[in-house]
Amino acid sequence: MNAPSARSYTMLSIAAAVLTIALKFGAYWFTGSVGLLSDAMESGVNLIAAFGAFWALSYAAQPPDEEHAFGHHKAEYFSSGLESTLIVIAAISIAIAAWGRLLHPQPIEQVGVGLVLALIATALNGAVAWILLQAGRRLRSITLRADAHHLLTDVWTSVGVVIGICLVKLTGWFVLDPLIALFVAANIVWAGFKLLRETGSGLLDSSIPKEERKIVTDILATYDPQGILFHALRTRVAGSRRFITFHVLVPGAWTVQRGHALCEEIERAIIQALPGSYVITHLEAKEDPASWTDQELDRT
């Protein structure tokens, strides 16, 4: 049986978003709480983002073609960029609704029913977020990780709204409801900007994480006793794919076949240690002065 793909997890996200929207708008309908309305609107963003994630992962899964020789993996960043933009738009909408209620506070009705529905939606979001986060880490998908972090933000937002509504019911301070909604809006904006920063980093070809780069350098270090040298190690990340390039310096007396076999061996070792990597090696003679003119690439 094949393991689920990143795209299949977005279907879970879509189904969860539809169900939580129904639950949260139901909670708002019963209570009239603008805090619960803001929570429901954020779930609406989750649904749109989930559809965007499904499209991005579908496009990213397409094989390389003549116009995209390195694949379509960066399509994932369009999804995370869309999600961060939608998060900010939702926050603005929530703030507008909350401001009107702040000027004209209103009582909250049928709190018990509303809170039960909100808690069910929160538990569902929490479970789906955990599943997506684990899958995103395993599949190296920024799209799934972005969706998971957004859902986790939604969970904490919901918890805050529920606590706030309980305080409104206990104290009778109706103004707490719109104040909570404004806090929710601020929290959503912060999450949106963090996600946007991660998206920008990916689009700017950021290097692989330090711990993964160390795996590469540790593999290369095993060839030191053979007198094999390396430099100009450069890496970048595109969605779930890593791209790793470096120069391999061997004795000039080696045959092309021997040097090629060594490069193939090194590439296989790195790919085995870091699945999903695309490794390119460049063979050079270490006695040739021209082989050392590109050492400045080691600083990149």
The CATH homologous superfamily name of the largest domain equals Cation efflux protein transmembrane domain
What percent of residues are in strands?
5-15%
According to DSSP, the number of beta strands is 3
Under CATH at level 1, the class of the largest domain stands as Mainly Alpha
Helix fraction, binned, reads 55-70%
List the helices and strands and how they pair.
Layout: H1 6-31, H2 34-60, H3 75-103, H4 111-139, H5 142-171, H6 176-203, H7 210-221, E1 229-238, E2 241-250, H8 256-273, E3 277-285
Parallel strand pairs: 2-3
Antiparallel strand pairs: 1-2
Helix pairs in contact: 1-2, 1-4, 2-3, 2-5, 2-6, 3-5, 3-6, 4-5, 5-6, 7-8
Textual characterization of the structure:
There is one protein chain. This protein is mainly alpha-helical. The chain has two domains: 6-203, Up-down Bundle (Alpha-lytic protease prodomain-like); 210-299, Cation efflux protein, cytoplasmic domain (Alpha-Beta Plaits, 2-Layer Sandwich), CATH 3.30.70.1350. 66% of the residues lie in helices and 10% in strands. It has helices at 6-31, 34-60, 75-103, 111-139, 142-171, 176-203, 210-221, 256-273, and strands at 229-238, 241-250, 277-285. Strands 1-2-3 form a three-stranded mixed β-sheet, covered by helices on one side. Helix 2 runs antiparallel to helix 5 (142-171) and helix 3 (75-103) runs parallel beside helix 5. The longest helix has 30 residues, at 142-171. The two termini are 42 Å apart. 39% of the residues are buried.
